[in-house]
Amino acid sequence: KENNSFEEMKIIKKYSKLINGENISEVMENIRNVTNELYKIFEECENLEEITCHAETPPSMSWNFRVSNKDHSWKKVIIYVPEKSLEAYTDNYSNWYASGYRGYNYFFPIGNKAEFYTSTNGNEYVINRTTQKAILSNGVEKKNITIPASVTVHSIQFPITEISEDCFYNFHNVESIELPATIEKISDYPFGNCENLTLLTVHATTPPATYGNYNLHATESFKISDSHHYAQRTHLVIHVPSESVDAYNHSAWKGTTNYIYPMGNKQSIQKISGCKYLIDSEANYTTLLRTYK
What we know:
This protein is mainly β. The chain contains three helices and 23 strands. Helices cover 5% and strands 36% of the residues.
């Protein structure tokens, strides 16, 4: 493809083969200061699953890096980069890892071996055979969701240590989610537009790492015009191990709409007659949280 931005870039395989989807894994090497069209070069690559980039400094670009299918929908891809550059590629301000694309771009050090895997119940994972850990990239919507502690692939158990961005996004019917003790990290906005989610149970004794305060809140969307919706935080009861309540309350898990209690306690959030309440059966009190017009 003729494009001036390719003057600063060397791609080992021919770009035409990428467009035709003939290669599952392609290697980019010696990319220097690609400022215009890099984010577009992998459009309509529906068979592309792996990219290896040897550049130690993440190549710059004018927009967020993505791979797309023929219909231009975003596509999940595994990206291998130099181990010492992994933090730079996955920085919050990197166009390679910008919010909205974290659920599609998965970064690993060169030399690791990762792959996508879908379990029989429909959960989608990214398996790292080198570290023998798994990322939950997409769950399956239902009223009550329980994420297992591990997933078995070819007789090998991979503990589930991370929840990907938008993992439960637009799960309008989910009311409760339970996460295993193996979870170490949660990416951006996993509970976006989960307006009926009121209970989150986390078995991890150490609060899983996060990208910030806002992303650990469930949100609900309000229509303000025919073409615009406004998303705001909704209220969430979070049950954690009793010995970890203080740690969660002093972390990003604590927020203005999150209520953290020990497991086994009986708290619930309910909508009654146009109002939302926090009902605490243990303390025998009720708190008005929000009214709806």
